Amino acid sequence: MIVTTTENVAGHKTVESFGQAFGVVVRSRGLGGNIIAGLRTIIGGEIHEYTALVEETRRQAVDRLVRNASAMGANAVVMMRFDSGALGQTMNEVVAYGTAIRIETL
Predict the structure, then answer these.
(1) Residue 2 burial by CB count (10 A; 0-12/13-18/19+): exposed, middle or buried?
(2) Which of 14, 36, 54, 66 is buried most, with the most CB atoms less than 10 Å from its CB?
(3) Section 71-93 average pLDDT
(4) DSSP state of 11
(5) What share of residues in the chain are helix, strand, coil (percent, to 5)?
(6) pLDDT digits (tens, 9 = 90+) for 26-81
(7) Within 13 Å and on the Cβ side, how many CA atoms surround 15?
(8) Are 20 and 100 in contact (CB under 8 A)?
(9) Exposed, middle or buried, 78 (CB in 10 Å: 0-12/13-18/19+)?
(10) Helix (H, G, I), strand (E, B) or coil at 12
(11) Over the range 4-23, which residues count as b (16 or more CB within 10 Å of their CB) and which as e?
(12) Quick count: other Cβ atoms within 10 Å of Cβ 47?
């Protein structure tokens, strides 16, 4: 499955569009991670616990996007984007979305 942030896939033509596909993940850092991250805010700098959480959550959202697009019959997703937000005090939501299409090599 090709996933791209561009409108077209180089060397391919779009033969069918299936519409919007997405992958949603809501994650929460455990109590221990929140405590360590809270302590890091006092010192300043990167909060590695949250960086790892967001990176893993984005990967999982893209995996779910690919599964959703495959179930629709697509072999590519174009115009892929991320959206994220906080849910409550300890949860993070990440959505990967784009247009599911079927492409063929030129």
Answers:
(1) middle
(2) 66
(3) 90
(4) T
(5) 35, 45, 20
(6) 987 665 555 666 666 677 677 777 788 888 999 999 999 999 999 999 999 999 99
(7) 9
(8) yes
(9) buried
(10) strand
(11) eeeeebeebeeeeebeebbb
(12) 18
* Angle CA 38–42–44, to nearest 5: 100
State the pLDDT at residue 41.
66
- Residue count (the chain): 106
Tokens 């949860």 belong to which residue? Answer: 91
Per the structure block, which two tokens stand in for 93? 């939501």
pLDDT at 94: 94
Both structure tokens of 26: 């809501």
End-to-end alpha-carbon separation of the chain, Å?
Answer: 17
Residue 80 contacts by C-beta under 8 Å, 6 or more apart in sequence? 3, 4, 5, 62, 65, 96, 97, 98
53: tokens are 């959480």
